[in-house]
């Protein structure tokens, strides 16, 4: 099944989102971590999931890992703004 997930990132992102909606963050993270190559949508989905579930520290860890692996773009900035706003740092989000 893992090989099929690697071939279809849309299905993998869906499994990540559904696992998170069911409160199974560990399962969502496992699917994400097992992708051979995460795209910007996969990264921002995981960052958003952790920030929405109140695990800001893990969201920041993922963000910094993402920055090291991907080039900066609009989606990444959007995820960071969302994360700052979610943790009540509106001023930081504006910067």
UniProtKB/TrEMBL annotation:
GO terms for molecular function: RNA binding. One of its GO terms (biological process) is RNA modification. It comes from the Eukaryota. InterPro entries: PPR_At4g14850-like_plant (IPR046960), PPR_rpt (IPR002885), TPR-like_helical_dom_sf (IPR011990). Pfam families: PPR. PPR repeats lie at residues 39-69. Keywords: Repeat. This is Pentatricopeptide repeat-containing protein.
